[in-house]
Write a structure and sequence with these properties.
The structure holds two protein chains of two kinds. By secondary structure, chain A is of the alpha+beta class. Chain A is built from 14 helices and 21 strands. In chain A, strands 6-7-8-3-9-10 form a six-stranded mixed beta sheet, with helices on both faces. A six-stranded antiparallel beta sheet of chain A has the order 20-14-11-12-13-21. In chain A, helix 2 crosses helix 3, helix 2 packs parallel to helix 4 and helix 3 crosses helix 4. Helix content of chain B is about 70%, strand content about 0%. In chain B, helix 1 crosses helix 12, helix 4 crosses helix 6 and helix 6 packs antiparallel against helix 9. The two termini of chain B are about 25 Å apart. Chains A and B meet through strand 6, helix 2 and helix 4 of A and helix 7 and helix 8 of B.
Chain lengths: ~450, ~280
């Protein structure tokens, strides 16, 4: 049991390549932290540095209050689960799990006891005398876990431990790992490139990109308040839709329609932004079939028409795909990187098609025109140059009410229109300086 | 790939070709065995199967220290040289396969160069060196050059084996608390065992079969190895060639090789690394 502190940790390879840059993070005792990012973002390097398998170029790493930069892995009291499991093929399951204890010169009866207890927890008792070659993938994975837990270490490090399992087993094992971690209460650092794993497992999630830590937050915060385009695009499945937008006459103009910005957001955009163009991010679930939006809510967003290209029904939800207007697609280095990671050639292609998650009861048909609604309160505005989420600063003290379609803002809306808009935003506090002064005008139906 | 989609006709063709190759390789060996069982008078008899079988040649060579002692030398020198070469070659090969260090390519190049060097060119300088150092006609006098030429061979075969072993196993061992040496001895080396056995066989064969160094760096049976000793066999008179005893000795020194290879064959073939990583 120990906390792990990474203090401005940097990894630079001899050839000058920077793998991890100025990584600072405090991992509390017993916490389950996920490092997530696309391949090559430095997350595994970071984990290897914590394990002591790679040297730290700059900065300080403390485990349990002790600086361990110069300590070899064996003196750090950490256990690691590898992506390939790295079981010793010439040893039985029992020997595999007891290897670390044996190296530590633990008495044989203690080793047996601990191995058998771990085997009981992991349901491996009947396989103890078999070799890894005779085990299934899931069993091997459990042996790798067992090898870690018999040690009772200060921390577990897991390097994509589920990526070699098939989809069904992965979900099952994910739950088991979560339960095991709660039960043992051991500090755990878990590396994955799968954002679903990250969101479901972690107490906190750290998103990395090109060796730089982007954001550390709880899964919920990460999802709702991404600090930049990269985090916004990486977290969430299907991922956030990005549209190009422009600021004209204090309004945010997009192909879906015009939104009125609050004063604070406009100031933010003017201060930070590079000119008049922005990138607008909308999560799929912020769209809805107009038929399922109560008339009271409709002013909170804008309504538009779209021709549905593809409709996917998952039973509980329906995903619709459409292209809208003369969408240019958005250009941003961060989005391109995300697209590359997702295996798509060009990012602009993904900007054209919009994905919306709508109510399963919808009557919308594939290939037909549909009337959709987008929730203005949940829209994110990003600076295309820096990728920074400009709506975040405002969102901090104003709940979600940042952008309005040409309608009164949260503070005044409830009073003026008698709607329950303000309570929906979860913000009962007075809005300071964020109230829109724009007159209700063209609630755009941009087609 | 003809072997995969072979017609019966192709199979027959390959069978015949294999048979021819094996026959060509085996006929001289069988002829030698036949000679070793012939009486001195029948040596020039052209028939393949001896008309009269005799153990006389074997009795003759095995009853004299002129052959027994060199046989012991051969076994001793071969085993010691092989052990030293395999131990050092595995360490060197491990470093070459795993580490990045300055001069690595130079090291590999040098090893290759030594392996390629014509041994005959080295006999005279080595002879003088050994005389000066007092190594002439001693076991170390043969072990050292054998190790020298065994190492490049060992480094080459073993580094190929080490590259096949997943690196994560070593990381896992380190995290489990092993020192680099423990990781090597307890995890990597057992997995490289097939490679080490292969290498050991190759190095041992080279030592066992060597004639050039054995005849050049020895002068008495105290360190002369079996192939060299055969050269000193004498006939019943000055003018008779000891064909029978030579054939018998050749058969005797072939037997350990056959046993060696048959015994370790399974180890060489065994794919020991299966199951280390996902299947």
């Amino acid at each position: 049991m120990a906390e792990i502190i990474l203090d401005h940790v940097t990894k630079r390879y001899p050839d000058g390549a920077l793998a991890v840059e100025d990584f600072t993070m405090d991992i509390a005792d017993g916490e389950f932290v996920i490092l997530v990012g696309p391949s090559g973002c430095g997350k595994s390097t970071t984990l290897n540095m914590i394990a002591g398998l790679e040297d730290i170029t700059e900065g300080e790493l403390r485990i349990g209050g002790q600086v361990v930069n110069q300590k070899s892995p064996k003196d750090r009291d950490i256990a690691m689960v590898f992506q390939s499991y790295a079981l010793y093929p010439h040893m039985t399951v029992r020997q595999n799990m007891g290897f670390a204890l044996k190296l530590a010169k633990t008495p044989q009866n203690v080793i047996n006891e601990k191995v058998e207890e771990a085997a009981r927890i992991l349901d491996l008792t009947q396989h103890l005398d078999r070799r890894p070659a005779n085990l299934s993938g899931g069993q091997r994975q459990r042996v790798a876990m067992g090898r870690a837990i018999v040690r009772d270490p200060a921390a577990f490090l897991m390097d994509e431990p589920l990526s070699n399992l098939d989809a069904k087993l992965r979900v099952q094992t994910r739950t088991e790992i979560s339960r095991l971690q709660r039960r043992l209460g051991t500090t755990t650092v878990y590396v994955t490139h799968d954002q679903t794993e990250a969101l479901t497992l972690g107490d906190r999630v750290a998103v990395m990109r090109s060796g730089v830590l982007q954001q550390v937050a709880s899964p919920k915060d990460l999802y709702e308040t991404p600090v930049n385009l990269f985090v916004a695009g990486f977290i969430g499945s299907p991922s956030m839709n990005f549209l190009s937008g422009s600021i004209e006459d204090g309004k945010l103009r997009t192909s879906l329609g015009d939104f009125t910005m609050s004063d604070r957001l406009r100031r933010e955009v003017e201060a930070e932004g590079s000119g008049r163009s922005v990138i607008v991010g909308v999560r799929p679930e912020n769209f809805e079939d107009v038929a399922f939006v109560s008339p009271g809510h409709r002013p909170e967003g804008i309504t538009f028409h779209a021709n549905i290209d593809v409709l996917e029904s998952l039973g509980s939800d329906v995903f619709v795909y459409f292209t809208h207007g003369r969408e240019q697609g958005v250009n941003s280095a961060e989005l391109e990187e995300l697209a590359r990671d997702a295996g798509r050639g060009d990012a602009s292609g993904s900007g054209d098609t919009i994905v919306a998650r709508i109510d399963a009861e919808t009557q919308i048909r594939e290939g037909h025109d549909a009337e959709l609604w987008v929730d203005g309160r949940s829209i994110h505005v990003f600076d295309p140059a820096s990728g920074k989420n400009l709506s975040l600063a405002v969102r901090g003290d104003d709940g979600a009410a940042v952008i309005r379609p040409a309608a009164p803002s949260a503070g005044t809306a409830a009073a003026a229109a008698g709607e329950s808009a303000a309570t929906d935003t979860g913000s009962g506090e007075p809005v300071s300086g964020a109230g829109s002064t724009e007159p209700a005008g063209s609630a755009g139906e941009a087609t | 790939m003809a072997a995969i989609t072979s017609t019966p006709r192709q199979k027959t063709g390959w069978g015949v070709a294999n048979f021819v190759v094996i026959a060509l390789a085996l006929i001289p060996v069988l002829w030698m065995a036949s000679l070793s069982f012939k009486t001195p008078a029948a040596i020039l008899d052209p028939s393949f199967i001896p008309a009269q079988w005799t153990w006389g040649n074997y009795d003759q060579i095995l009853s004299t220290s002129q052959f027994i002692r060199p046989l012991i030398n051969s076994i001793g020198i071969g085993i010691i040289a092989t052990l030293i070469a395999v131990v050092f070659a595995s360490m060197a090969a491990y470093a070459i396969a795993r580490l990045r260090f300055p001069g690595k390519s130079v090291l590999i190049g040098m090893a290759l160069l030594i392996a390629m060097f014509p041994q005959i060119a080295l006999v005279t300088p080595l002879f003088n060196i050994e005389r000066a150092l007092g190594l002439f006609n001693t076991w170390p006098g043969l072990i050292i050059p054998y190790v020298t030429f065994g190492l490049p061979l060992g480094i080459y075969t073993l580094s190929a084996f080490f590259r096949e072993i997943p690196w994560e196993l070593e990381k896992a061992a380190k995290v489990d608390g092993a020192t680099p040496f423990q990781a090597f001895v307890r995890v990597i080396a057992p997995l490289a065992a097939p490679g080490m056995v292969t290498t050991a066989i190759l190095v041992f064969l080279a030592c066992w079969n060597d004639f050039l160094f054995a005849i050049s760096f020895t002068s008495t049976i105290s360190s002369r190895t079996a192939p060299a000793a055969m050269e000193y066999f004498s006939g019943s008179s000055q003018f008779t060639v000891p064909t029978g005893p030579i054939a018998a000795a050749a058969c005797v020194i072939t037997i350990p090789i056959i046993v060696f290879v048959l015994f370790f064959q399974r180890r060489i073939v065994a794919g020991l690394t299966s199951g280390a990583v996902k299947g």
